[in-house]
Amino acid sequence: MNLKKLAENLLFALNIYIAFIALFNNSLYVPNWLLPVGRLHPVVLHFPIVLLILTLISVFFRLRNEQHRQIQYHISSYLLLLAALFSAITVITGLFLSREEGYEGNTLTRHMWTGIAIVFVASFIYRIRNWLWKKVRFYKIISICSIFLVAATGHYGATLTHGEGFLLPRKEKEKQVVAFEDALVFDHVILPVVRDKCASCHNPRKAKGSLVLQDSASFVKGGKTGKLFVPGQPEISLLLERIHLPDDDDKRMPPPGKPELTGQEMELLELWIRGGAGFSAKLAALAPGDSLRELAGTFLDTQEPFDFPAAKEETVQQLTNNDRLISKLSRESPALAVKMYNSVAYTKEKLEELLVLKTQVVSLDLNKLPVKDDDLKIIARFQNLRRLNLNFTDITGAGLMELNALKHLRNLYLSGAKVNYNGLKSLQAMPKLQQLAIWSNPLTEAELETLQKENPKITFITGYRDDGIPSKLIPPRLAENTVVFNDTLPLALEHPIYGVDIRYTTDGSDPDSILSPLMQKGAFISQNTTVKAKAYKDGWLSSDVSAFTFFKNEHKPDSMYFLAEPFENYRGDGVYTFFDGELGGMNIYRYTKNKWVGFRNGNLELMFLYNDPAVVQSVGLHTYISSGEQAFPPEHIEVWGGANERDMKLLASIKPLMPQEKDEREVKIINVGFKPEKVACLKVVAKPLMKQPPWSRGKGEPAMLMIDEILVN
Amino acid sequence: MNRNAMEYNLNLNRRRFLSRLSVGLGSVALGSLMIPDLFRRGGDDAEAFVPGVPHFAPKAKRVIYLSQNGAPSQLESFDYKPKLREMMGMELPESIRRGQRLTGMTSGQSSFPLIGSYYDFHQYGESRAWVSDLFPHTSKIVDDICIIRSMYTEAINHDPALTFFQTGAQQGNLPSMGAWLSYGLGSENNNLPAFTVLLSRGKGDAQGVYSKLWSNGFLDSIHQGIQFSDSDDPVLFLKDPKGMDRQNRRKILDHLAQLNDITYKEFGDPEITTKVQQYEMAYRMQTAVPDIMDLSKEPDSIIKLYGPDCLIPGTYAANCLLARKLSESGVRFVQLYHQGWDQHSNLPNEMAGQAKDTDQASAALITDLKQRGLLDETLVIWGGEFGRTNYSQGKLQHDKYGRDHHPRCFSIWMTGGGIKSGMVYGETDEFGYNIVKNPVHVHDFHATMLHLLGLDHERLIYKHLGRRYRLTDVAGHVVKDIIA
Q: pTM for the whole thing?
């Protein structure tokens, strides 16, 4: 029981001690070595809260059994004693803590007195616990009151640490919306950053280091350590020194655990101090290109506040259709943007229908619609327009003065419309116009210069101007993709640019701008021909020469078959490949779909059959030759012909020329000519090269023979 | 049957008990501790999200993405590293490489000789940005663009890297960013799809692009990217079949819609209404598309601007011109892919060809958008899926070398809607190997893009298979520094 007595006495002593320091609070001096005791406050304060609440709540749950109730009584009185003791210790530590810098104001006073009240109330309850135990109702009332007292103290304490309003759900940060022209550097850019990142510890309620960062006056005043900044000299300004200290430095601001300043915010503060740390300067007054202006601009929320009421949802719905899209600027904004489409369906009435929304529409896009000068009168009634797109409309300058009624208009796009100088002059009366697009308008350089001089506030978008240096045309191309023909082929070359002259030759020479014939309808070719063509147009450089080779293939067999199978990786479309009229191109890569048939080790052996005997005098093999890819011409070719498959004679046999080491890869026809012969049956045999020449990549190896088309004439 | 069900329910074993009760409760408690916002904002964002309306007023309304597929080398384009020329042929120091994983193509290489750019660099514009001589037209518009030299990604091979860039995940089959935008912002022109795709291929070594890159993933199929090809039939299956006229088609669609309506009332599957919408849009596209694809009415000055190649269907230049026309007509997201930038060997030669094919048209697109007043509201992005190594792949010769894949840093440029112009952002070390300042991850890039379009990447959410999906997964920061 000694321990209990001791505790009771201690409690009594502490009560007196607390009463004493509370009364003479202001004239007390706390030595430095005692201050750390104060910092225990946040640790110990949780004990009395829990103990008190536990004890006080237990009053409401009395046990029925008499014996048990006795035990409950004892336990609760011990708990109460403990709670009162801890309350006292907490209050003492709290009183010490409050001596440290940065704790001032009403909240602190309230916290202090409610805390002290708890100690006395708890001690008092402990004293009269015997009496209270019998007056159950009275005990309950006292318990409820005490719990409220604990809650109030806790709340004030938390407000001190976490700041005002920490209990309620945090509201979305309300950023002050201000137009760029009206924004002040300090009020609208610097102060919000400081409020966001510093004010939780540097405010009138809790001024750590006696520093308050609330307004310009408190900024100038500085704190305990001195002035915050020296205008124009960021190097010796305390504020910048503190925010730039390394992470582990005690004096670094913001301290660990608090939201950090971003690099941009630090840069912003530095630029502001370097620039003289003015409090009344306007952002717009800074020179364009000034770093502070540029950076501060990004902090500014320049989203314009619209003060007009939103339109009815149904009205917007009704007016929206496939040619007219009406969209909200953003979720909460009453402002609307309208974009209209379909030049065929456009009428003035469609614009007029929108007048129901004339207050809400801030952006109107009529790009490429046949808007007439007269329609501008309707447009002028959309009083809140900020942005108007009239590119490529049918307006002339005459009606533009109507738009002067649009007092908020900032961006006006007139590119490609036939707007002249006089029309544009009338736009000077627009107060807020910032950007004017006049690319591709009928304006002379001099007129443009005058306009720019007279309207320094407006940015003119003049766009791409032809520098007069002609550029090169692309070469002509084939209108139809046919290069293999049976009898005659209409020659059709084309060029995508309007008004281009195509001149061509058929003799292999390069086309000439005067002498070579012009491409015209009705031209045709009737034999194997290489056409070279070039495109010409005034104001352009003539194109490179393009060359197209056309092949005549007069006697397409009625049926045909392989006498020997081709190489497995190059089968093309089988035997039909040779007469499908499509060339294989310069890519024989076997995994891409291609039109090449290849032979290696085995001969090309093909049989062609004609229902009606044909008079034949040549057979041409369209062959891919590339020593690097081991594709060579055949060693020799034989052509056999006759009336039927069993009765054929050798018509011709040749040994084609082999490529040399330096030769580029090419595709060419290897032609076998002979005396005209009437045949119903034709056999072609070509033997791939068995040993590639010693200089080649595949020396000594058998070569590939690649054929994509066979021409029988 | 009933007995089985009963038995199954009685078999409440330990694992099921835990997963049902304690894990559920515990994770709520733990989650609220670890994620303080869990209860503050509730999980209702996905339900509260209204598709088709931005969260806040957007700076850009549309995107044109010029994807340079295969990964153009940053060291021959926008990241100037004179040191590499000085140290040509010397080994890449291990202090720089720091155990970076390599692709299978160079992991067997015994030496990693540094190689500087074959092409010279010069500074241009008021921003004094360094651009290589391969991009003479881009160098003229440096004051309009923001070059980011500090992009980095996670994947080291083309397909995962490209998929990551397009969908925010390497595995594929998630919605592409164009689909997300279509979902988030809706269409600006009901006669055209909100997301279109254009392909072209240069002469350089090419890597494949597949339709999974423009997939709608789990979003409604109306958000899928529609590929426009260079053939006579730019959009497949759009034309009426032979022997059917428009009136006929209209009648069919009307009757089909009635049938679909009945089915919808019976089953309530939202995909049915999506289908009806798609049929209707396809019907309207029949008139809108030929108009867009017709380049013959473009004036000579425009052809000169983009270069005469722009009239050859299927070229990058033609696609750039088409992109402008589509974007002008209100297509939210125009995705271009230009293949052929994978220079593992013969880089100086191949890259010159690639640059020649793309440089003029890319710059022309910017100029053209600007002169129509469209650049303010159109975000244009140029870039590949990762960077290339500062050492040579294969045998090193002064004018003949290759570069392998390098995810740790690469350069892209952005311009238009809300992007700061004339800016060079981020920095790599003098070896061009690691980022030393302002790194931008692919997720950051996505977050920034969505932000410019008025969408909060943390609130653009779609619930699918029991979890909430975002384009930026659970990462991404808006790069405020590059926003004007």
A: 0.72
